[in-house]
TrEMBL record:
CDD domains linked: AdoMet_MTases (cd02440)
Bilayer-spanning residue ranges: none
UniProt-recorded name of the protein: Methyltransferase type 11 domain-containing protein
Biological source species: Micromonospora andamanensis
Pfam name, any one: Methyltransf_11
Domain Methyltransferase type: 41-135
InterPro entries named among the record's database cross-references: Methyltransf_11 (IPR013216), Methyltransf_Superfamily (IPR050508), SAM-dependent_MTases_sf (IPR029063)
């Protein structure tokens, strides 16, 4: 679907919920974002709320790039710090030189990848050796519960209701846990952390009578030499 249908509502919601500072706090506490990181990349940046919040917290950041496939989402961005820049681009063709960034993150976007291994390879390309990639995404169990087949082994999209616009739904590619791990390890990443969380929808009607994790996170470190 086109994100033009709910870009304004998304922007309003993340501003009301102070999503930017909250997520940057997560990047600090879970993934180790700190003053030593000077070049950052946000994959699926939306309205750039989180990118701007990262720069506001760490004003020594020298370059902050946000990419998103939807120009409608990018158009919602307000005034940004001078070091922030946004561009409409695919996560498998990031407009940046090799080893451009020392900290990369993605919030609920990697599941849209057309080729998970290719995406992880492209992120590795633009990340310096030793750099960090923090991935926050829809949990594979959530995908299983929403698949029409209810079969974890079947490669099948699931229909997700948007939190910011509950009357709209999008099709989310369903990757398995093993696919995330294999894509990371196979493209030069070391897994230094993994987490599962119960989100706001964990007990929603789609999952009743189960309470399921809806969020998965990976903290990855770029190996010194790509395999």
């Amino acid at each position: 679907m086109s994100y033009a249908t709910y870009a304004e509502e998304y922007h309003r919601r993340v501003q009301e919920e102070l999503s930017g500072p909250a997520f940057v706090g997560e990047l600090v506490d879970v993934a180790g974002l700190s003053v030593r990181h000077r070049r950052i990349l946000d994959i699926g940046c939306g309205d750039a709320t989180h990118l701007a919040a990262a720069v506001n917290r760490f004003p020594d950041i020298e370059d902050a790039l946000g990419i998103d496939l939807s120009p409608d989402m990018l158009a919602q961005a307000g005034p940004l710090p001078p070091v922030c820049r946004t561009v409409a681009a695919d996560m498998q063709a990031i407009p940046a030189d090799d080893a451009s960034f020392d900290f990369v993150y993605s919030r609920y976007a990697i599941h849209y990848s057309a080729d998970l291994a290719a995406t992880f390879a492209e992120v590795a390309r633009v990340t310096r050796p030793g750099g960090t990639f923090y991935l926050k995404d829809a949990h594979p169990i959530t995908g299983l519960m929403l698949k029409p087949s209810r079969d974890y082994s079947v490669k099948e999209d699931a229909e997700f209701r948007l939190q910011c616009a509950r009357h709209l739904t999008v099709r989310h590619p369903c990757f398995t846990f093993a696919e995330y791990v294999d894509a990371a390890l196979g493209q030069g990443w070391q897994i230094v952390g993994c987490g599962e969380r119960m989100g706001r929808r964990s007990s929603s009607s789609e999952f009743h009578p189960f309470r399921v994790p809806t969020i998965i996170t990976f903290t990855l470190r770029r190996a010194a030499v790509l395999t």
